[in-house]
Amino acid sequence: MSKTIMAFDFGTKSIGSAIGQEITATASPLKAFQAKDGIPNWDDIEKQIKEWQPDLLVVGLPTDLYGEDLETITPKARKFANRLHGRFGLQVELHDERLSTTEARATIFEQGGYRALKKGHVDCQSAVVILQSWFEYH
């Protein structure tokens, strides 16, 4: 049976999200959630989780080019993943997200030019890149 998987691109000001199906291994952008120092409005995230009923959540883990933790953001992304699991009782996997933002910006630019590069679009496209990378890895 195919799983529905929701991915998050964690950021301290904005958290992008995407949804995908294991059977097709494709992902689509959903929405970006505003955050204050990495803390979203959990009610908004809960609404999205209730709407899509994912079987698994994937959170992009920000690291440097060598896969090492970044001092400030990596622990916050781990905390976000732990809170998702604690609040919603869903399995959460962390997935290396090196270069996802760069790739997302390139894709959006190809599709819509410079004006398409709004922050929320980039965060959601980053979540798509994270999820597609997760599919390729599994």
TrEMBL record:
Molecular-function annotations in GO: hydrolase activity, acting on ester bonds; nuclease activity
A Pfam family hit: RuvX
Gene3D superfamilies attached to this UniProt entry: YqgF/RNase H-like domain
GO biological process, one term: rRNA 5'-end processing
Enzyme Commission number, as recorded: 3.1.-.-
Family annotation (InterPro entries): RNaseH-like_sf, YqgF, YqgF/RNaseH-like_dom, YqgF/RNaseH-like_dom_sf
Key words, A-Z: Cytoplasm, Hydrolase, Nuclease, Ribosome biogenesis
Keyword Hydrolase: yes
Subcellular location, record wording: Cytoplasm
Signal peptide region: none
Gene Ontology terms: cellular component: cytosol
Residue ranges occupied by any YqgF/RNase H-like domain in the UniProt entry: 3-104
EC class of the enzyme, as a word: hydrolase
Main subcellular location: cytoplasm
Keyword match Nuclease: yes
Highest rank taxon of the organism: Bacteria
Family: Belongs to the YqgF HJR family.
Function statement: Could be a nuclease involved in processing of the 5'-end of pre-16S rRNA.
UniProt protein name: Putative pre-16S rRNA nuclease
Organism: Vibrio aerogenes CECT 7868
